Queue: 2 jobs
Job 1
Amino acid sequence: MKYLLKNGTVVTGEKSEQLDILVEGEKIVQVGKNLPSEEAQEIDVSGKILFPGFIDGHTHFDLEVAGTVTADDFETGTKAAILGGTTFVIDYASQDKGGHTLKEGLDKWHKKADDKCSCDYSFHMSIVEWNENTEQEIQDMIDHGITSFKLYMTYPAMIVNDCDMYKILKKLGKCGCFAGVHCENAGVIDALIAEAKKEGRLGPENHPLVRPDTMEAEAVHRLLVIAREADAPVMVVHLTNKKAFEEVMHARANGQKVYAETCPQYLLLDDSVYTKPDFQGAVYVCAPPIRKKEDQDCLWEALSREDIQTVATDQCSFTLAQKALGKDDFTKIPGGLPGVQTRGTLLYTYGVKEGRITQEQMCKLLSENPAKLYGVYPQKGVLAPGSDADIVVLDPEKESVISAATHAYNTDNNPFEGMRLRCGIDKVFLRGSLTVDDGRLVKEKLGKYIARGKKQM
Ligand code: DUC
Ligand code: ZN
Ligand code: ZN
């Protein structure tokens, strides 16, 4: 199929220009002014803004958390993603503790995802322990196109000790790869949870109190000291607060290569959500927790200075019935929020339209930078000849209100419920196929596994 998208505003990380885009098969073949249509189907996109397909480098679909499984799997989750303009997700696959291989973990995640996805997909590999085979296994992952990894500094099933962390980071650094790290101080959080329980404080309003910003910042600091010793670049994933951000900036000032990711919930919500009545605070339970207004301000400023490289979602959704598993004990509430459907429209509405970031910066945060970080640039992340025709046609005039009654997730709650969107995703092309048209999903399950190269950032 050949399409000619006429007169849209084509955005890159550097500039926005009114141009035509010619798509043939899966690729963009030409970008320019007044391109002749020849036998291509012409689509008038004047007044629309064209972004490279958004890339979400942080999702959890079909993941077991706190004795239950996320409400959205790869099928429902990637439908929501593509409706929101995300054409490529990178989900976190995980090794199991107790002598299991990375390959076993990866095979498990392929089984969850293969043939079910409505957008393209890949995996980061979570490494939970080090043994004599880990170096070779990392190389095998890289050969399979898995070039980014994840380490957890919390959660009993995933936590890596400092010794293993050092060895893993050092190996990744030598390979030209890096790990995204979940930074929270597990030991102190356990102690704060024990105190809360002893005092009979069992409601969701206690969740942010037992996982304070200082304990995220401490873990970021420790990670960066270890990464320095290992001579390895790292990414702090889901960065939430000012103190943790200052640790990142401090390490950079010392010459370290540190990437940072944040998420819409940390930019747009504050910790008052945890005090909502009738157990509604449970909807917002995620780790790290949602922070304070001053932390939001810090994160927005960091985006505008380009000190944070990407905005991902940490999509990890549960129904209210699942959240109610923690009705009598907030530590049993499965942690996570849905987000893949509204990341782009929220960032455009509250970032670009409110003058906090430019649309070119939005393009870097959602498309160009993750493509470079995760080794798929310029196949993805840019609207240029030779690139995959992953194209988001955003309508800057459309208005809507986020609601669980209309969203595509398999959940009955939405953390952004009631928030106004001052734009809409009109069309999405996935490798040249029109998959979303007039805001509706018209083609499903065209997503394929994308083998990735090494970072280019
Ligand atoms: N945090 C969450 O809230 N859910 C899934 C994983 C994570 O790190
Ligand atoms: Zn995490
Ligand atoms: Zn996560």
Job 2
Amino acid sequence: MSFEKNIRTVVPYTPGEQPQRRVIKLNTNESPYAPSPKVAEVLHSFDADSLRRYPQPDCHVLTEALAAYHHVEEDQVFVGVGSDDVLSMCFLTFFAGEKPILFPDITYSFYEVWAAVYRIPFIKVPLTDQFELRPEDYRRENGGIVFANPNAPTGKAMSLTGVEQIIKENPDSVVIVDEAYVDFGGESALPLISRYDNLLVTRTMSKARALAGMRIGYALGSKKLIRYLNDVKFSVNSYTMNAPSLAVGVASLEDERYFRETTAKTIATREWTKEQLKKLGFFFPDSQTNFIFASRPGTSAERLFEQLKQRDIYVRYFRQPVLDQYLRITIGTQQEMETLIRELETLLKKNF
Ligand code: PMP
């Protein structure tokens, strides 16, 4: 058909399954705990009449709360509909040159999709065979750099020294550090934003704050970068965040104790799960996140994935070279992980 030549065609990102039935859901790195009770309070008392009005286009209530929380100024904060929205806006804003941007060959697969949809040339920089990112590999001409730290789906974190080396050696590029999982481990690059105006750090409330369904993400960086981001955002869609999301984001930040307690529980369960998986013959990069990327020599990850699914345990399986030898297992409650380990034990005895 003739109109098709004018259509932008891309291979889209494939999100993990969201089954409607109640299953043990360990496939999209969500929190197994409810959000803070303060979030429930805000939602219950939300004034529906106020929805007649547009939400704040600059997301002021939330940028103000985030600035206070992270000890930065309000014009160093940018808020979006999950960090996917924030990152996509960053790609559109900061990667508009002709030189290829750089990101690891094994990382969040959305980076490649945004590069494709915005027509940004890119080079995938190989990780080592231990899934390590080598800062010196980013010492080459580029139009920008993005990486997740800790990385996904490997779960591995790079030292702050390594992150700083990349930023320092690329003063002419914007460097985006995607810290979706930093609440669970690794070192944040946030202390560096006051020293490097080419650094942008992105965060999410979807994981440790248990708000994936609300869609709240944000970026922190120099005032200059945040201004450029806002200019593009206001040129695409000025009302991104809805009013309930803004209120919920603020409420979550007000309950630091709950955030710390639930995060600590997830970390403790992760460490327990690592031990159990080791005993069952799995190996994995040392995870600093709320998931474990595990493989077992001689065992088909795909079969294991299917068999677990039949038992209503959903983990993530990626059908692509190297990754297809692994299962990415989100850390659920202690009880859920005990069930998983029991089922794995039974399956490995019987079928593999
Ligand atoms: N970055 C990484 C590395 C992720 O794994 C995810 C979650 N899929 C995101 C960003 C996006 O998270 P959200 O849009 O829910 O904030």
